[in-house]
Structure to design on (580 residues):
């Protein structure tokens, strides 16, 4: 069979994506599948508003739906109040257009099988979730077709496996599938394919679909309009090829005009909605960019850096240096560089909750080309087997981290270097490991230190508060003789067992260390909620404190800090001193 390796790769990827979708679909658990929440809700609200409630401005129907299904995340930010108590959707409607056939399927199933046809019941959720997966798989096989035009079967297979299984795209095609990324992903595969076809044999239909695709992508996320670089600069890798390209364009000027008309028609639904909602064809949704001061931490920051959490993307960039012999050299190079620059220049550089940098994931079909160019080059080197082993390792790490992310062990917004080091490939993190998400202090090897129990309390202490309060669990004094005044390095470990019945989600176990007559104060804390703790059960917490000056006389207080109503029992508290 021809090109069998890339076909096998596509089958493997399809099975993995389906497995992840099924694993997070609530089929064997107590929770119901909900994909139309948080940001995804903002993209989706057009559909129930138009087809069911016939209301996209006053949104009188939404409070009831939010109360019933918990959609908005507690604060309704998905639409802005414009005037006269009317709303304007904050998110553009391109994703809703792509969701429409899936929504109608869900609506039909809801009516046929007597589910609530309210736009948010189970049939709608499953139709969207599995529909995005279908879009992603169609894009995968289309991408295979594209890559095989320029690269060998082996290179195509490896490229697809790394692109789909060693990156964060799994999260946005197979798990958080109602976000915009899974819908835009196939648009990028489509624009590349259509561009190739038009340059091979120009046609009116091809030009029309290219224009419409760009327009539709632009009203999914306005920054996606830069995909125009793909058809615009394709085939301009040399002066000679560029000359032929522009001669071809001149011969088919009518195609260009038609593409521009279809581009406008692609954008038109958004303009019509804004006219209805605001009285104007253009509305500022409030996005900001800081192009003179981009946030490079988007790429290399420990919070959610692209190169940190999905390091295979380094090869995406490396491949840009190996594009010289390909007709897509300039189009891909300029697109990738502009795309990255725009993404790292958005003022809200964290991009909400995400695994790695989600704002780049939808454009991976374009990044697949430099990745394949790099792999093709490496396949001719002696150390290609090292690269293959590294690729296999990075794929394993990514699949492991996806599980961690969806358990919220790998945090969606607050990662740091110390914490990442403690949970890296760690299937069973301890309370001390998890504490570094909040404290960023960790004593590497306790056995190197002298250990002394400073204080302990084994009596159950009932805690109750209403309002922002600090509830004292234990107070003790650390004298200079504790551990010896000559100690060059000293730490405290605090351990506690706490059972919380109210206030579990917004309370912290807190320490306050005061030295030199209260002139200095050091506070550490860890959240009571974590992935290894359960509300209403006795949970163990532990964290370290590094003493600034072991010789100082210190007063240590240990508290539960609550932001509101709190009820719980501290069943055990222990303080241990470590010194060199």
């Amino acid at each position: 069979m021809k090109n069998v390796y890339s076909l096998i790769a596509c089958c493997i990827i399809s099975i993995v994506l389906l497995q992840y979708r099924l694993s997070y679909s609530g089929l064997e658990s107590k929770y119901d599948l909900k994909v139309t929440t948080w940001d995804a809700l903002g993209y989706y609200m057009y559909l129930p508003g138009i087809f069911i409630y016939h209301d996209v401005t006053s949104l009188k129907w939404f409070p009831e739906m939010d109360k019933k299904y918990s959609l908005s995340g507690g604060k309704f930010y998905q639409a802005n109040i414009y005037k006269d108590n009317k709303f304007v959707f904050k998110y553009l409607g391109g994703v809703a257009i792509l969701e429409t056939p899936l929504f109608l399927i869900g609506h039909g199933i809801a009516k046929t099988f007597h589910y609530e046809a309210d736009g948010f019941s189970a049939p709608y959720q499953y139709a969207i979730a599995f529909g995005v997966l279908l879009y992603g798989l169609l894009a995968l096989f289309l991408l295979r077709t594209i890559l095989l035009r320029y690269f060998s079967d082996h290179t195509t297979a490896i490229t697809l496996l790394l692109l789909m299984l060693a990156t964060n795209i799994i999260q946005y095609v197979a798990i958080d599938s109602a976000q915009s990324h899974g819908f835009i992903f196939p648009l990028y595969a489509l624009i590349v394919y259509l561009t190739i076809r038009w340059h091979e044999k120009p046609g009116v239909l091809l030009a029309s679909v290219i224009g419409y695709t760009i327009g539709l992508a632009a009203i999914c996320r306005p920054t996606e309009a830069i995909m125009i670089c793909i058809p615009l600069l394709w085939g301009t890798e040399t002066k000679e090829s560029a000359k032929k390209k522009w001669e071809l364009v001149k011969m088919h000027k009518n195609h260009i005009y038609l593409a521009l008309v279809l581009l406008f028609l692609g954008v038109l639904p958004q303009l019509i909605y804004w006219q209805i909602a605001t009285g104007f064809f253009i509305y500022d949704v409030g996005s900001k960019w800081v192009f003179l001061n981009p946030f490079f931490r988007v790429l290399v920051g420990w919070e959610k850096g692209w190169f940190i959490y999905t390091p295979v993307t380094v090869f995406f960039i490396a491949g840009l240096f190996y594009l010289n012999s390909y007709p897509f050299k300039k189009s891909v190079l300029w697109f990738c560089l502009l795309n990255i620059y725009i993404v790292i220049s958005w003022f809200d550089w964290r991009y909400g909750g995400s695994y790695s940098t989600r704002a780049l994931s939808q454009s991976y079909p374009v990044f697949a080309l430099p990745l394949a160019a790099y792999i093709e080059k490496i396949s001719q080197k002696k150390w290609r087997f090292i690269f293959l082993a590294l690729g296999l390792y990075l794929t394993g790490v990514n699949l492991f981290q996806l599980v961690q992310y969806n358990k919220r062990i790998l945090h969606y917004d607050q990662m740091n270097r110390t914490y990442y080091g403690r949970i890296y490939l760690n299937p069973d993190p301890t309370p001390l490991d998890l504490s570094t998400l909040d404290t960023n202090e960790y004593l590497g090897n306790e056995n190197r230190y002298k250990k002394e129990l400073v204080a302990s309390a084994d009596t159950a202490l009932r805690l109750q508060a209403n309002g922002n309060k600090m509830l004292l669990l234990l107070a003790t004094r650390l004298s200079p003789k504790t551990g010896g005044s000559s100690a060059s390095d000293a730490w405290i470990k605090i351990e506690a067992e706490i059972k919380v019945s109210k206030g579990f989600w917004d309370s912290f176990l807190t320490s306050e260390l005061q030295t030199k007559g209260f002139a200095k104060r050091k506070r550490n804390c860890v959240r009571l909620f974590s992935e290894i703790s359960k509300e209403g059960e006795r949970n163990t917490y532990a964290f370290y404190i590094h003493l600034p000056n072991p010789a100082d006389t210190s007063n240590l207080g240990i508290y539960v800090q609550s932001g509101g109503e709190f009820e719980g029992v501290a069943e055990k508290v222990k303080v241990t001193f470590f010194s060199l």
